[in-house]
Design goal:
This protein has a six-stranded mixed β-sheet with strand order 3-2-4-1-5-6, with helices on both faces. It has 160 residues and is an alpha/beta fold. It contains four helices and six strands, in the order E-H-E-H-E-H-E-H-E-E.
C-alpha cells in the first residue's frame, strides 16, 4: 500500500521583480504553512520520504513545514522535475519513486497538484489552495501501478 501527501507551496509574492522560479513567500504564506504543519503533524506516518520542487516558494514551504514540527530538513530531497504545473509530469515523477518508499510527502505547484488529486483521488476538489494538504492512499504496492486511490484527509488554511 502507498500513501502520498501533496502540499501546495504557500502563498508567494507576485510583486517581487524576480523570475517565477525565484518568487518568495508572503508573510501570510509563511503563517499559513506553519499552521498547516502543526495540524498535519498528528496525521503524518511514522516513516516517510519528503520531496520538493526546487522553486524557491516550494522549497521554502518544505523547509518551514519541517522546521515547524522538528523534522530534520536534511530529509528533504529536491527535484527540479517537480517544478511543473502539469499533472502528467507530476504523475511521471511520482511513479518513478522507489518502491521501498511507502509514504511520500511532496511539495509542489498548482495546477499539477489539484489535477493530480482529482485524477487519482475519489473526491473532487475544485482547487487545492496555497499551503493546502491532501493525503491519498493507494492499494497498490508499486508507485508505477498507482491508480484511483482514496482521499484520506485535506487540511486547508481557511479551515484552521
Amino acid at each position: 500500500m502507498k500513501s502520498i501527501i501533496l502540499i501546495r507551496h504557500a502563498k508567494s509574492d507576485w510583486n517581487s521583480p524576480v523570475i517565477d522560479k525565484n518568487r518568495i513567500l508572503t508573510d501570510n504564506g509563511i503563517r499559513n504553512i506553519k499552521k498547516i504543519a502543526i495540524e498535519a503533524k498528528k496525521y503524518l506516518p511514522e516513516n516517510f520520504t519528503i520531496i520538493s520542487s526546487t522553486a524557491n516558494r516550494a522549497s521554502e514551504t518544505a523547509l518551514l513545514f519541517c522546521n515547524q514540527i522538528l523534522i530534520n530538513e536534511n530529509k528533504i530531497q529536491f527535484n527540479d522535475e517537480l517544478y511543473t504545473f502539469d499533472e502528467n509530469q507530476l504523475e511521471k515523477e511520482i511513479k518513478k519513486c522507489d518502491n521501498n518508499i511507502e509514504n511520500l510527502i511532496l511539495f509542489g505547484h498548482n495546477e499539477a497538484i489539484t489535477n493530480f488529486v482529482n485524477k487519482f483521488g475519489d473526491k473532487y476538489i475544485a482547487n487545492v489552495p496555497t499551503a493546502g494538504f491532501v493525503q491519498l492512499k493507494f492499494e497498490q504496492n508499486s508507485w508505477k501501478d498507482i491508480n484511483k486511490g482514496k482521499m484520506i484527509r485535506t487540511i486547508f488554511p481557511k479551515e484552521i
